[in-house]
Amino acid sequence: MVRRITSACAVAACLGIVVTLQSNVAARQQKADPKAANKSATTSIPPATLTGCLQVHGGKYMLTDLQGYVGPTSRSWKTGFVKKSSKDVEVISESSTLKLKDHVGHQITVTGVQDHPVRIKARSIKQLAPSCS
Length: 133
Known about the structure:
Distance between the termini: 84 Å
Number of helices: 2
Structural class: alpha+beta
CATH class of the largest domain: Mainly Beta
Number of strands: 7
Strand content: 35-45%
Shape: elongated
Oligomer: single chain
């Protein structure tokens, strides 16, 4: 009986040591190369392309009237909560060369990384029409 208890304690101690060593090794690898971990996380998100009308709401650039967008929807009391409409998507410029304010009120296609269902980091913008209709 004593042998079994001693053996069980020895096995438990060995497992505890193995788990501790594995977690230390993983932590050291993350500290050694954090840029590689961040780079792989951002490159794993595929680029998204959204088409809609660019508007400014409260200092934020929003893509409204989205075409073919399958994302979060909202319901309004104005339609009796019956009609679902797509939520607007915030457009954030990844570079200063995009000049979002030049495209306000235009029908555009935005290509970039959609890191959140209601936000896209724009890499390129293509104007489709001079006005939203």
